[in-house]
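Quick one: structure tokens for this chain, please?
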Amino acid sequence: MKLKGAILLTVLLLLAVATIYFMMCNKKKTTAAIVLPPLHLQGSTQISYGTIDCKIWDNEAEDGDTVKVLLDGALIKDSFELLNRPLELHLGKLSKGKHLFVVAAVSEGMNAPATASIGLSNGTESREFIMDATRDTAASWTIIIQ
């Protein structure tokens, strides 16, 4: 009788462990929300519908500006240093309408603010603008896809 009880207890423990394991494996992963300082809308740009590519660079002295880039609240590129050589970001085909492009300063480098030059292209049209971000206020720009 003791053997049957031990076997039953072992089976119950194995079932409990298997249940916990499968619950942990099927648990949906959540992404942490990106916390930004208040946004300062600095302008807007219109560009025709198409595959949008973006270049971002420091067109002045490379002084250690480090930024992150978001589009419509989604992180596009995390913490990278602005250099005179442009970093290329492929935004893809954005739906027609308004999109919010954000540059948040992780570090303002030697000379505040973190100044980022932005170039947008759809293959036939190009637009350029400059955004100034500080650690206290993220720069935002409205991109209007026509």
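Residues 33 and 73 are 9 Å apart (CA to CA).
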